[in-house]
Amino acid sequence: MVLVGAGLVAMAPTAGAAGDFYTPPARFASEPGSVIRSEASPLLLQIPGVGNQWPGTATRVMYTSEYQDGTPAPVTGTLVEPTAPWQGGGQRPTVVLGPGTVGQGDQCAGSKMMNFPLAIDPTKPSIAVNYTALELNLMLINGVRVFITDYIGMGTPGVHTYVNRRESGAAMLDGARAALRLSGAPADAPVGFSGYSQGGGAAASAAEMAETYAPELNVRATYAGAPPADLAKVTKGIDGTFIVGGIGYAINGLTARYPALRPVLDRETTQEGRRVLSQVATQCIGDTGLAFGFQSTTRWTRTGESLSAVIDRTPIAKKAVADQRIGRLKPNAPVLLEGAISDDVIPYGQVKQLYQDWRAQGADVAMVTNEIPPIFPGLVVNHALPMLTTLLPATNFLLGEFHR
């Protein structure tokens, strides 16, 4: 299949097995948003080879984005062209979805589970879940084209750089570029971004990076639910919960981009701590929760301090975490934020701070505050429920901006 993009630097071989698809060619187009390769990807309950099935036609995609240092990076995702027509005026809009936390192992990539949202590998063992279907289908039935990114390092070679501000935002923006190119849509067709939790952070990053990173995109709106805008506060909030292992995902990703963190980890972590970091790197979130849920990170450090405390007193670690802060740039289109007062994963205060940071810069931003009372704190119930209750308001917000 020919690479699609301004700079054609190689010919990608036709993909065979699913595993082959995720291995990038030795040379590929360096321009962000270039399509490296693509193949059909049936959705749940669809019959392979039959065209124009409900709710849309899906294509697995490998496209070019950028690592933190600007080096070209191969990323995978899924483009879904809806069967339903677009009822609004102008060109059909495209929404790029950023998945919430699914894990750090390659088997967790959503594009590997579009035909069935659950994958069990008894050899690891591992259970992977793709839970983007609700938002995906809400967009498709309204005639909106959808692109779902797997993020950098998820399925493709290298470490998945979990909650990396620069790389997650770039993966979303370049996903929009790739979606427009592959679908044949005009370059100025409307674009939006959406996500919750990790996906909310990716959407928020894309929203504030759009003006400088992808100024040609016609961004109309962004929904960012429970975004981890301040990683320092999120690290403290998540410690001791069912998904405390998510801290391990973040540390693994940061260490891959800040090599000077490696000797710090070697010095500060116990053998048990290093084992946890190694194991979570190949796990999906359910695996991580079952293996390490409700542990305190004090068990992973030599001093018995929490990892947050270690970060606070280590300048290079503190800088690496601070680099992930969202809110220093101004979104160039309306944004809807969501935060829950009792969220037991993403602290409400740092979402409210993001709202205030953007408002101070003159951004067009609104915020929904969820007031569900605490339910089994630490079990992530108060993080999951707001995702569901804000789904329709978020969809209506995006559609409303597209209809303007």
TrEMBL record:
InterPro entries: AB_hydrolase_fold (IPR029058), Lipase_secreted (IPR005152). It comes from the Bacteria. Pfam families: LIP (PF03583). Transmembrane segments: none annotated. Residues 1-17 form the signal peptide. Coiled coil: none annotated. The keyword Signal applies. Keywords: Signal. PANTHER family: LIPASE 5, PTHR34853. This is Lipase family protein.
